[in-house]
Design brief:
With 272 residues, the protein is an alpha/beta fold. The chain contains eight helices and 13 strands. It folds into two domains: 2-69, Vaccinia Virus protein VP39 (Rossmann fold), CATH 3.40.50; 82-271, Vaccinia Virus protein VP39 (Rossmann fold, 3-Layer(aba) Sandwich), CATH 3.40.50.150. A seven-stranded mixed sheet has the order 9-8-7-10-11-13-12, sandwiched between helices. A four-stranded mixed sheet has the order 1-2-4-3, covered by helices on one side. Strands 5-6 form a two-stranded antiparallel sheet. A hairpin with a 2-residue loop joins strand 5 and strand 6 (91-97). The chain is elongated, with a radius of gyration of 22 Å. The termini are far apart.
Length: 272
């Protein structure tokens, strides 16, 4: 049995992908349960009927539960993998995306703002926090000689997409890893950290990214963060970063700062 809870306000392409994945996982005779919080749903039922010959409906006051039993392996699945191409300076770069990966099928405007402001120099080590499909990582890895990029994301699909994109663009200087806590970061190993963080969870994810960047950067290493609300980030950076600058780019703001030597010394003393 496979159970898939869905919301009427969720992403339709991702829901279709999940339903197909659920169908793939089932043995013939296995059952899939899919729920929705829309008591008047028709969309989900139609999608399930593409996969199952019979779909049972269980109505509830706050939604519906559907049941479908797999009768055959012979179902035509849709491929939701996508590619897009973008230009960064003299390079045309190919990005691979899938549903649930930020940002699917297109270059996010925030990522473009980051690309237009970040400075990468030859030989630097770059850390991309929350890399998504990896356009910023691909650009950083392509700009100068002997650059090494490490990219982290909490979504395994994002990591897989970036690794595939690195292969398509023949960038052997990118390492992408699944890491939701920053535990794989080598302290003080990076010259540059870039981040285009999600802004839900009442800012907690942004706080985690700033803490991870502080650990990752060497003294005087630089952080670039893209945001629509720069002041909270600039305020939070003051304890561990110097030379903080805020600049408007497109519909966003990019906040930059240098890892302060005093903060690095304090962190080193704390470690020991």
């Amino acid at each position: 049995m496979v159970a898939i809870p869905l919301s009427a306000h969720g992403d339709g392409e991702l829901a279709r992908d999940w339903l197909q994945c659920g169908h793939r996982l089932l043995e013939v005779g296995g059952e899939l349960l899919a729920s929705t919080d829309n008591p008047r749903d028709r969309w989900l039922r139609l999608e399930l009927e593409r996969l199952f010959p019979r779909v049972k409906v269980e109505p509830h006051a706050d939604g519906l539960i559907y049941r479908g039993r797999k009768t055959t392996q012979a179902v035509k699945y849709k491929n939701f993998r996508a590619e897009y191409v973008f230009r960064d300076r003299s390079h045309l770069l190919r990005v691979v995306t899938r549903p649930s990966v930020f940002s699917h099928r297109r270059l996010d405007t925030g990522a473009r703002a980051l690309l237009e402001t970040m400075v990468i120099e030859p030989g630097q080590r770059v850390l991309d926090l929350g890399c998504g499909a990896g356009p910023v990582s691909l650009a950083a890895a392509s700009r100068e000689n002997n650059v090494r990029v490490e990219a982290l994301d909490s979504n395994p699909r994002a990591v897989a997409c970036l690794l595939e994109g690195a292969a398509l663009n023949q960038r052997t200087n990118i390492d992408a890893r699944l890491d939701a806590s920053g535990s794989s970061i080598t302290p003080g190993a990076f010259d540059v950290v870039v981040a285009n963080p999600p802004y839900y969870s009442q800012g907690r994810i942004v706080s985690i990214f700033l803490a991870e960047a502080s650990v990752a950067l060497r003294p005087d290493g630089r952080l670039w963060v893209v945001t629509k609300d720069p002041q909270p980030i600039a305020d939070a950076m003051t304890s561990q970063f110097d030379s903080i600058e805020v600049q408007p780019v497109r519909a966003y703001w990019v906040v930059t700062g240098r890892r302060s030597t005093a903060a690095s010394s304090a962190a080193a003393e704390t470690d020991y």
